[in-house]
Amino acid sequence: MTTIAIVAGEVSGDYLAAGLIEAVKRRLPDVSFIGIAGPRMIEAGCDAHFAQHRLAVMGFAEALGRLPEIYGIRCKFHKYLINNPPDLMIGVDAPDFNLGLEFKLRKKGIRTIHYVSPSVWAWRTERVNKIRRAVDRMLTLFPFEARFYQQHHISVTYVGHPLADAIELQPDQGRARVQLNLPQDKTIIGVLPGSRCKEVQKIGPIFCQAVARLHNMHPNWEFVVPLAVPGIRGIFEQMIGRQIPGVPVHLYDGQAKNVIVASDLLMVASGTAALEALLCKRPMVVAYKMAASTWWYMKKKLIVDRYALPNHLAGQDIVLELYQEKARPTAIANEIQRLNDSPEEIRKLKQEFTKVHKLLRCNASERAADAVMEILNG
Questions:
Q1: Residue 220 CB coordination number (10 Å)
Q2: Ordered structural domains, the chain, with CATH
Q3: Out of 125, 305, 308, 314, which residue is the most buried by the measure of CB atoms under 10 Å away?
Q4: Distance between CA atoms of 378 and 373, rounded to whole angstroms?
Q5: Structure pTM?
Q6: Which class for 103: exposed (0-12), middle (13-18), buried (19 or more C-beta within 10 A)?
């Protein structure tokens, strides 16, 4: 029997890994997956040695307090894999955890794939040398990443993004509102504060203050918020109670895609949510805030002046991105208002989003599974 070890460290990685597991199983029905897994991976058939959420951290400063636990998990899992060698190790995102594990396993003759490139094209480019030593194949979600690895002579396959495959080119806003029990005739603003507790604690209060400003200008507008896990819901409910107790805010457990599609405009924490908003053709403002020490370190290593995925993928600034001190409630609320008043700009924006969507729609899980089979077959 073929055994594949697979590790995902975040909610988005769980989604990607589950699709890959299912696609590999269609080619190799008797394959066994073991690893560090989220609920979707487990449902797809992965035997979880540790829960994926135990690896989720935000930035190097926030990770310091968790280092002993995370290092202990990696040591235990590494020891298990050395004693029970898999045919292949697949690290899904979580590069700080996975690349070190992949490097150690590859030294022992275990083949390795890394699925989802770290942002070496944006900052800490020197990591490409570690990647070269750690992986037999890099699988990238975006075409500009594949070009980067080709330039650095690292085996790479561009697979596209599974979200682009899953999301229809013209999402049905009316149906999404019915599913969420929202009115069809009101302006609805989506608020996506992130999928990790630390990022929600950082950007959540700023988004709430922006909501308060918009509510004062437009009392009839409604606001919707998808929350990834129960812990985050508790954090955000407290913020609402403190800052905007009288504002009509609808909270949903999960259902991020439905919330995005149901919305007219979005305020989004940078990351996968911004990509999902693009694929759902929803105008947005992207904002992010992290620990000052993390930002200071990142700025020293940055080699790009765009951070938001929609802007990278379009090759131009098509959405406003606000980071750190620029991520102010007034700036966010003003941009939402400006977009609401600019129907022609929104029409052009949706055309750009559609172009990017088509570029990323490559049947990603199947292409990733083909790459897995190539490595397994030598």
A1: 10
A2: 3-160+362-376 (3.40.50.2000), 173-360 (3.40.50.2000)
A3: 308
A4: 9
A5: 0.84
A6: middle
